[in-house]
Amino acid sequence: MTRATIKDVSRVAGVSIKTVSRVLNKERYVSDDMRQKVEEAVARLNYHPSQAARTLAGKRSFQIGLIHDNPSPYYIFNMQAGVGQRCREADFRMIVQPCDINSPGLVDDIGALIDQAQLDGIIMTPPVTDVGTALAELFRRKIPVVRVQPGTDLTATSAVYIDNVQAADDMTAYLISLGHRRIGFVTGHGNYFASGQRLTGYRQALQRAGIGFDAALVFPGQFDFQSGTAAAEALLALDQPPTAIFASSDDMAAGVLAAAHRMGISVPGQLSVAGFDDTDLAQVVWPALTTIHQPIRDLGYAAADLLLEFGETIERRQLPHKLVVRGSTAAPSN
C-alpha cells in the first residue's frame, strides 16, 4: 500500500498544503473548522509526516534538548514525562542530556549537543538553570531557552516555577498547627536556589508563630537519601531532639524515615516526618510521606509548551503547589 503524503491529506481535507502544514505543526490562528478537516483526513489516511522531510522543508530539526544535573531519579523521570508529552503532541523529539555543572567542559558539552543535534531549543532544569556561563553561551548562539525554577536573571528567559518560599511556609505552618515547636529542617544542595527559598519559608512560618529560630535544628542536605539519613542521625542525637523533621525533598525525607526506623523511633508516634516534591517515592515508603506536591510533570509540560511557541516575548508561568497529608505526621506525643 502506498504511503499517504501531505498532498493526499490536502486533497482529502479540501485545504491547501500550507494549511495542512500549519495544523501538523500545531501553529496558532488556524480555524477550528480547518483544523478538524485536516485531523479527520490525517486519521482517515493514517498519515504520518516524515521527520526528514519536515527538516528539509524548513529551518527546524524538530528536536529540543532537556539538560539536567539532578540526583533524584524520580524528579528526572517526571520532568522527562512532562516534556516528552508536549513534544509528542507537536511531533518534536526530546533529547535528554545529563551534565555536571561543576565540569570545566560544561559549556563545550552543551555547545556540542546543539551542533550535533541541531537543536531548535533548550530546556534547563535546576541547578543548570543558574549557570551563568551556560546561559551566556545560549544567548550568544541565539537559541531559544526556557528555564525551570530559575533563581537568577529572572527576566532573562521564559520560565516555569512554583513558589518555594510559600510551599515551605505551608508545610512548616501545618506542623506547627499539629503542636510541634521543635521542628528540624534539612536543607537542599547549596547549588540550588530553591534550597535557600525553602529555608526562608521554614523560618518565615516559625517567626509568624512566635517560635525562635534555632540553627541547631537545621542540617545541610544534598537532595539525596544518604544526606537525609545523616541529617536525621545528627538531629535525633541532640539533647533536645526535634519532634518533627521537614526535609526539603522526598529523597531526603525517605532517608530520615530509614534512620528513624533503624533507631527504633516510631513514625509518626514519636517523630513526624515531612518531605517535598510528592514523587512516587512518597507513597512507597512506610508510612507514606506527608509532603508538598510540586507538579514536576506539569512543570516539564509547561516548559516545553513555552519553548515550542518560539515566540520573542518572555513569559513566566507559576504553577500551584499543594500540601498533601499522609501517614508520616501527627501531633507530638508529649
TrEMBL record:
One of its GO terms (molecular function) is DNA-binding transcription factor activity. Keywords: DNA-binding, Transcription, Transcription regulation. It comes from the Bacteria. The keyword Nuclease does not apply. Pfam families: LacI (PF00356), Peripla_BP_3 (PF13377). Residues 4-58 form the HTH lacI-type domain. SUPFAM superfamilies: lambda repressor-like DNA-binding domains (SSF47413), Periplasmic binding protein-like I (SSF53822). PANTHER family: LACI-RELATED TRANSCRIPTIONAL REPRESSOR, LACTOSE OPERON REPRESSOR. This is LacI family transcription regulator. The lineage of its organism: Bacteria, Pseudomonadati, Pseudomonadota, Alphaproteobacteria, Sphingomonadales.
